[in-house]
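Design a sequence for this backbone.
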């Protein structure tokens, strides 16, 4: 059964049986990729903080709580599951240390103790080194190459002195030589790994390109020159020393056995000797400077790496030239925009999107539709009637009028013409009124003008509209008369009065024809005179 938070083990037949040992060794890296890797790293740091650590669960809980590196609630059951998983991966070992407990509860807590395995300690040490300086540029210890050259020449000279080399002195020189060489080779690998990481970028700006160009021209050139100068001398010294190496190593082994004695009594025990004590270490040293297997030496690979670095530099230079011609990569800008989006709150993110991509929200232009054309809500926009949007509003979103205001139109001539027309009409009506007053009482004998006839008919229509039938009594046959049958125009000083006379016929003559009015008598008088009579009555 797996713990709920522990990653599943690899399937039992996912790798060939012959690789079981390799698979088990590689499993010590599993905790670095597990979802709870930060907790596993914190636990491994507790065990790596002391030599020969032998800790129980309460001890680990106490140290984690003291260091404050555990994220979340520190629970003994969860920690026990983590420790058991590390044992399964091979990073920890169960301890056989005797437990002294004062009570059963203390025994239950302390009975499981753990120790650090050698692969587990090595993996954790490498992980700490990666976490500390994974992205840092490491300087190449080129001065160590001169020390390696000098050390080899001293060892070769000591071997050929009469009586042979002193084993203790030879051991010290060999140990120092391999420490210096290991430091140099490791720094070269780290530096070129960093250089390849930088040159693989295609977003170098001018300052970075200038800096890395100088780095290549100065620093890399200094390294390659130093290696090119020292390599032939070191290779020649190794060639001269090589026939005497077995004897020298045998002499040193007899002088300082170290842990090598374990292999004679315990053949199954593997011992990793210090560097330089095995012939394989010397083969590795010679392979760095001399091509021994036809695949090239490390010096050759160093020259190839330098050439590839220069090619990458030229590729970046070409890219920058294309950028100057307009073919510019937007990777850096997009990365910067992504960082802004990542740090912005939702409101600012919307503003960024509008500013970067022009993705404005929907706008209502506010153009009123045709009031006579009511469009139902279910009509699609595609098939519905279109609304004419002004060009300024459609293209610029502005309702303001552009350009100068138009001049006010001059209507004075039209006004003068209308005033003249009104005066002519007033004069004509006044003349018609005078004609009607003069013809009053003798309409049957005079022929009125068209204007006078029109004015008379206008007043006659108004008087008939104002009149009402009134019962006048049996003495006044036929008994009905007209009341208020009159109309007038104070401005024209004209008043028309109707009187019902049964059997009477009034004939109105005009240039346009005659009009006979039955049962009515028409009298036209001055408006002011009638008004004075009414006031006096």
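Sequence:
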């Amino acid at each position: 059964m797996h713990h709920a938070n522990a990653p599943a083990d690899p399937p039992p037949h996912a790798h060939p049986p012959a690789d079981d040992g390799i698979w088990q060794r590689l499993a010590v890296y599993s905790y670095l990729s597990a979802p709870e890797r930060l907790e596993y790293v914190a636990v491994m740091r507790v065990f790596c903080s002391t030599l020969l650590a032998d800790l129980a669960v309460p001890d680990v809980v106490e140290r984690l709580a003291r260091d404050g590196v555990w994220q979340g609630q520190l629970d003994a059951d969860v920690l026990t599951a983590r420790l058991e998983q590390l044992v399964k991966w091979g990073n920890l070992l169960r301890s056989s240390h005797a437990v002294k407990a004062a009570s059963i509860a203390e025994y239950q807590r302390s009975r499981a103790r753990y120790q650090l395995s050698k692969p587990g300690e090595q993996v954790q040490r490498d992980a700490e080194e990666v976490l500390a300086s994974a992205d840092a540029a490491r300087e190449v210890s080129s001065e160590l190459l001169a020390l390696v050259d000098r050390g080899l020449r001293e060892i070769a000279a000591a071997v050929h002195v009469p009586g042979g080399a002193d084993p203790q002195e030879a051991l010290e020189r060999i140990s120092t030589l391999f420490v210096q060489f290991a430091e140099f080779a490791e720094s070269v690998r780290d530096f070129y790994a960093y250089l390849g990481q930088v040159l693989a970028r295609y977003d170098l700006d001018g300052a970075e390109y200038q800096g890395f160009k100088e780095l290549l021209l100065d620093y890399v050139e200094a390294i390659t020159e130093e290696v090119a100068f020292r390599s032939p001398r070191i290779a020649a010294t190794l060639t001269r020393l090589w026939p005497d190496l077995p004897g020298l190593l045998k002499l040193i082994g007899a002088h300082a056995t170290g842990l090598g004695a374990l292999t004679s009594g315990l053949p199954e025990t593997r011992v990793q000797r210090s560097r330089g004590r095995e012939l394989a270490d010397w083969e590795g040293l010679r392979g760095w400077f001399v091509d021994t297997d036809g695949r090239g030496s490390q010096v050759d690979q160093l020259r190839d790496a330098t050439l590839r670095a220069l090619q990458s530099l030229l590729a970046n230079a070409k890219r920058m030239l294309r950028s100057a011609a307009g073919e510019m990569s937007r990777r850096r800008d997009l990365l910067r925009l992504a960082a802004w989006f990542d740090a912005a709150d939702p409101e600012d993110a919307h503003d960024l999107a509008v500013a970067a991509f022009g993705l404005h929200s929907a706008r209502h232009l506010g153009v009123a539709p045709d009031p006579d054309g009511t469009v139902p809500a279910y009509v699609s926009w595609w098939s519905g009637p279109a609304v004419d949007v002004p060009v300024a509003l459609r293209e610029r979103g502005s309702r303001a009028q552009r350009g100068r205001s138009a001049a006010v139109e001059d209507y004075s001539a039209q006004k003068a013409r209308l005033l003249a027309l009104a005066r002519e009409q007033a004069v004509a009506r006044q003349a018609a009124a005078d004609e009607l007053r003069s013809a009053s009482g003798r309409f049957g004998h005079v022929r009125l003008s068209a204007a006078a006839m029109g004015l008379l008919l206008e007043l006659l229509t108004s008087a008939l509209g104002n009149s009402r039938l009134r019962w006048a009594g049996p003495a006044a046959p036929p008994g009905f008369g007209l009341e208020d049958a009159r109309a007038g125009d104070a401005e024209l000083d004209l008043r028309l009065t109707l009187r019902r006379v049964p059997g009477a016929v009034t004939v109105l003559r005009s240039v346009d024809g005659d009009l006979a009015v039955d049962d009515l008598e028409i009298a036209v008088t001055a408006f002011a005179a009638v008004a004075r009579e009414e006031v006096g009555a």
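The radius of gyration is 59 Å.
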